Amino acid sequence: MAITPGAAVHSATAGRSRRPRTGEASRAWVYVVLAAGMVAMIFPFVWMILGSFKTTEEIRQYPLNFWPLEPTLANYTALFVRLDFANFFVNSLVVAVFVTAGNIVFSSMVGYALAKLDFAGKKVLFVLVLGTLMVPGVVTFVPLFVLTANLGLVNSYPGLILPFLIAPLGVFLMRQFMLGLPDELIEAARIDGASEWRIFLRVIMPLCGPAVATLTILTFLASWNNFLWPLVVATSEDRYTLPVALALYSVGQNAAQYGLMMAGAFVVVLPILIIFVLLQKYFVQGIALTGIK
Amino acid sequence: MNRWRSWSAVAVIGTLAVTGCGRGDGGGDSAPSGGAAIDETPATGEVTIWAMGNEGEVLDQLATKFEAENPDATINVTAVPWESAHDRLATSIAGGETPDISMLGTTWVGEFAATGALEPTPAGLVEESSFFPGSWGTAVVDDVAYGVPWYVDTRVMFYRTDMADAAGVQAPATWEEYKTFAKALQSQGADVGVSLPPGGFDSWQYLAPLVWQQGGDIMNEDGTEFTFETPQWKEALEYYASFFEEGISDPVRLETGEIEQKFISGEVGSFFSGPFHVGLLKDQGGEEFNDKFGVAMVPGADSRTSFTGGGNLAVFKDSQNRDASWKFVRWLSQPETQIEWYGISTTLPSVQAAYEDPTFSKDPYLSVFAEQLGDSKAPPAIPTWAQVSAVIDQEIEKVTRGDTTVDEALSTIQTQAESIGTGL
Q1: B284–A141 C-beta distance less than 8 A
Q2: B83 vs A247: CB contact, 8 Å cut-off?
Q3: Which of B371, B310, B327 has the alpha carbon at shortest distance from B121?
Q4: Residue B72 in contact with partner chain A when CB distance is under 8 A
Q5: Which of B82, B88, B283 sits opposite A256 (nearest CB)?
């Protein structure tokens, strides 16, 4: 999907430079192609959201109804009352918020040091950080769990949060962004007598908006969707996060209740949609600046 | 799916490495025995049990009854999603964070028993002969029983009775009748006479019964050698592939969710599945569909053996409350409890005596499952079975697609299985 609109844009601009007069027509075609792509992408979500307000019988009905005939909140009631999704939602939110906050604080601190400070072994340290980026999570999974278990953190919020407070990708992203900031700013602040902390907090960080926005979205998304770690660390149901709960309840007696499943999926997707809409402007900017996805 | 496969591989390697150096008390060189016998006094203290999927969601209802009979005991049920439940257990064993009891997929017992984390069943806890023999076999690794079978699952043939009646055929008992039957269903409008997976995950569960039906097996008597290059396997695989060659089966894999829709619409004339499909079909087909389908024992050659799976219960060595854990397991495997459990979870009892109850003996569907359970078999309980079976799945696909011959496929399975080994 991503290729089609991109290719269309490319050929459209090429076509315009050669035949200026057909520019308007090609532009119209671009919109048609993009609109078709958008509908194809968005329709399943719309169907899911509408479906969450239908009864299971109505979803199964043939021919299909687009709009709910008798809109019902029964699916959401079942989700939050019978299946205790409020608890899972809070767990997910607590974990994602702390993990995201931790990444913003620690990644930017390390990134700043690697980008702007001079110290012995800086290059080696940076290569090491990049090196850990190459190690797949599966390799460290079991040792990390054994460590967590030995620290007595199994089935606790710290056990779910601590291992993810900083990630090499975040460090890399912040460093790349900060490299682009002029050294003169830091020097000027230093001459004016600002402490190193002050420089970091008041001069550098305010300029890192796009990078922080990108980091926020990436980290929040990763934490929100994380499945295997919470599954293993949360040994009792009251510590389950949303993806674990969704996996639990989407088989067995609830599996055939499509409305309930769609309501569950919508609850899981909603916070991500909100965050993305809020930060989307910076997100694109941030990705373009750092050149990574 | 591949990602999960590699996860579990890593998790298992981690498990073995950690338990290898951490668990010196795991039985040592002497054969593990069940430890002290469990007495008849009421259970006390807390017991944590992990159960997967639907079983985990509804086990609380049954546990309350146990708590009423044993007022000083508390049962904490944790529902674990089936997806990656295996990895969760493997990692927990590595980290020494196991519950007291866990439900295990029948094919996992060998692997987890090999880590030394499971406690052998104490002598005299349950009567071995009260379970279905095929089912009890799933709990036994290298002649030692770990835990007990909790519920069973077997495959029978689901077919469209209306089509069969119209064509004047009856559910097949033999291989010859089987093909005639499937073709007759096609003559009544079914595109697919019998739906079989042409390959992919767990396809071996459809092929292995054909071997068992001729008296063949996956391993030799004493469980030391794989026996894939035998006439029974050759016959079975040729027979299986012929359904695709003759157009009786489509080389398209239908998952749960698709298959019942196509069965109800009449595109698929018959398929093999477990007891849960009865409920699904009744639910989705509506009133008038109820008398349009039936179940029958699988057709056979020398025997009509089917595949058996299900769930076992195992107690971990690290349990803080061993006695109460085994008492709960014993209670769960009583016939009365199992009948009640069927009412709650619709999973089939693993204890034979439970089937004398009218719930099963009078039900037209359940009685067939009960009969089939008397002749059903599980794969060998070896730690490496997941890897070996993946090779079989892969070779079945090559054969049904015509990429390789039956002989070559079996020789590949044999060679690869030998290099994987039994893991014991």
Answers
A1: no
A2: yes
A3: B327
A4: no
A5: B283
Based on the structure, what is the number of domains in chain A?
1
Q: What is the interface pTM, i.e. ipTM, of the complex?
A: 0.72
Determine the topology of domain B162-307+382-420 in CATH.
D-Maltodextrin-Binding Protein; domain 2 (3.40.190)
Residues of B with Cβ-Cβ distance to A227 under 8 angstroms = 84
Omega cis (within 30) before A243: no
Q: What tens digit of pLDDT does each residue of B135-171 get?
A: 888 888 888 889 899 998 889 999 999 999 999 999 9
Sheet with B156-160, side-by-side order of all strands: B270-273, B156-160, B293-296
Residue A241 lies inside a defined structural domain of this protein: yes
B57 in reach of chain A (CB within 8 A):
yes
Closest residue of chain B to A148, computed from CA coordinates: B95
Q: What does the pLDDT average to over A88-116?
A: 92
Q: Is residue A138 in a domain?
A: yes
Q: Given a cut of 90, is residue B52 above it in pLDDT?
A: no
8 Å CB contact of A248 and B56: yes
Best CA proximity match to B313, nearest among B351, B353, B359: B351
CA distance A201 to B372: 72
Q: Domain boundaries in chain B?
A: 8-25+35-154+309-377, 162-307+382-420
Residues A276 and A213: their CA atoms lie apart, in Å, by 10
Q: Does the structure show a pLDDT above 90 at A100?
A: yes
Does B266 reach chain A within 8 Å, measured CB to CB? Answer: no
CA distance B373 to B352: 9
Residues of A in contact with B94 (CB under 8 A): 142, 145-146
- Structure-token pair, residue A219: 């980290």
B 277-336 residues with CB < 8 A to A: 280, 283-284
What residues in A contact B81, CB-CB < 8 Å? 231, 244, 247-248, 251
Task: Give the nearest partner residue to A142 out of B81, B94, B284, using CB atoms.
Answer: B94
CA distances (Å), B266 to each of B103, B185, B270, B285, in order? 37, 10, 9, 11
Residue A26 lies in a domain: no
Tell me: domain B8-25+35-154+309-377, CATH 3.40.50.720, correct?
no
Domain B8-25+35-154+309-377 and domain B162-307+382-420, same fold? Reply is: yes
Three-state SS sequence of B360-399: HHCCCCHHHHHHHHCCEECCCCCCCHHHHHHHHHHHHHHH
Domain presence at residue A53: no
Domain that holds residue A223: 76-291
- The per-residue pLDDT of chain B, averaged, comes to 85
Interface test with B, best of A87, A248, A250, A258 (most B CBs within 10 A): A248
Residues 362-421, chain B, touching A (beta carbon < 8 A): none
Which amino acid does the sequence have at B344? Answer: I
Which tops the pLDDT comparison, B238 or B279?
B238
CA geometry: angle at B124 spanning B123 and B128, to 5°? 95
- Please report which helix (H) or strand (E) contains residue A259, including its range: helix A258-290
What residues in A contact B57, CB-CB < 8 Å?
248-249, 252-253
pLDDT given for residue A236 in this prediction? 85
Asked if B90 contacts B12 with a C-beta cutoff of 8 angstroms, the reply is: yes
Q: What is the C-alpha R_g of chain A?
A: 24
Secondary structure of residue B307 in the 3-state scheme:
strand
Residue B31 three-state SS: coil
Is 90 exceeded by the pLDDT of residue B211? yes
CATH number at residue A99: 1.10.3720.10
